[in-house]
Specification:
Rossmann fold; Cytochrome-c3 Hydrogenase, Chain A, domain 2; 11 strands; elongated
């Protein structure tokens, strides 16, 4: 790449650092090679940068003064407004200034603002329960616009906060978002209604799930070790969750459902507060409350009844086993 670099500054607030840990697993190519190939330069990252203390603060001041251009401010972790709106539950080390205030100042000079992970986007796990820290996202407080910057916030580019939601995010969601921003190829129409990049949010976790044959026949797992579909009994939200986890695999081969665990819809606001146990499917009259996206209830009931009646014995037995009991029949294809 030639020309001026696309500068990013990364701050971590209230969270576990899991999105950075996921990002470091980027491969084919690795993280640094990917960023360098796109002309992306990390001004500072709390894990990846050498500068600490006064050196880092001096860099922040240069960014605020305009001496160093800031193309993307990346925030990982929820913003902490407490106690009583002061933000002093999280003061940036080496300063007397709450991190939320640093974020607001830096967001004011950034060309783009990127929320990395569901905590930074909507509050996430950090905002769960009684939320004593008054944690929120950058431009959302749960499902409601607002957050640390306000729902009407627009960066210098005119874009709202770009919410690369996930818990954690897939490394490619982050790198591809930054690459699109660096190339000027991400506009308002490329974000969905919750500000998520549509290149991954226009997909469903259901797409590519290896349990789809069981789903089609409503051959359901009854416990976590079973091979069947986890929607009916084990709380799987893959038919409603917006992400491409089963077509863009993690570390080249994995996903939650491929690992035997139900999708908990971690790219959605307030996923952390489902109102029931994650591995439980709420039902009314035996019908799951959360139906597949775009599926009318009457159709689901009718199709489920037909599917269960037509379930092959192979799927019926394999669904409640931890290994394949009956393999698919071998049939010669007739030549025409």
């Amino acid at each position: 790449m030639t020309g001026a670099p696309f500068n990013i500054l990364w701050l971590q607030s209230g969270g576990c650092g899991g999105c950075t840990m996921s990002l470091l697993c980027a491969d084919a190519p690795d993280l640094m090679t990917t960023l360098k190939s796109a002309g992306i330069h990390i001004l500072w990252h709390p894990t990846l940068s050498e500068e600490t203390g006064a050196e880092a603060i001096a860099l922040f001041d240069e960014v605020l003064s305009g001496a160093v251009p800031l193309h993307a401010l990346c925030i990982e972790g929820a913003l902490l407004r407490g106690p009583n709106g002061t933000g002093r539950f999280h003061v940036l080390a080496g300063t007397e200034t709450p991190t939320i205030d640093w974020v607001r100042r830096l967001a004011g000079v950034a060309e783009h603002v990127v929320a990395v992970g569901s905590c930074a986007a909507y509050g996430g796990v950090t905002a769960a329960g009684v939320n004593p820290a008054d944690a929120c996202g950058l431009a959302y407080d749960g499902r409601q616009p607002g957050g640390a910057l306000g729902g009407a916030f627009r960066s210098r580019s005119g874009l709202p906060v770009v919410n690369v939601a996930g818990c954690p995010t897939h490394p490619n969601w982050v790198t591809e978002t930054l690459m699109l921003l660096a190339a000027g190829l991400l506009g308002p129409g490329d974000l969905d209604s919750y500000g998520r990049p549509r290149f991954y949010a226009d997909h469903l976790v259901h797409h590519g799930c290896p349990r789809n044959e069981y789903y089609e026949y409503k051959a359901s797992a009854e416990k976590l070790s079973d091979l069947g579909c986890m929607m009916e009994h084990l709380g799987c939200l893959g038919t409603q969750a917006h992400a491409d986890c089963n077509t863009r695999l993690w570390n080249g081969e994995g996903s939650c459902t491929r690992g035997g665990y139900a999708c908990i819809n971690c790219t959605a606001p307030e996923f952390e507060e489902p109102g029931h146990a994650f591995l439980q499917t709420p039902k009314i009259g035996g019908i799951p409350v959360g139906l597949p996206t775009d599926m009318p209830k009457a159709w689901f009931i009718a199709l489920s009844s037909l599917a269960k009646a037509a379930t092959p014995e192979r799927l019926r037995r394999n669904a409640v086993s931890d290994h394949e009991v009956i393999p698919p029949a071998v049939r010669d294809i007739k030549r025409r």
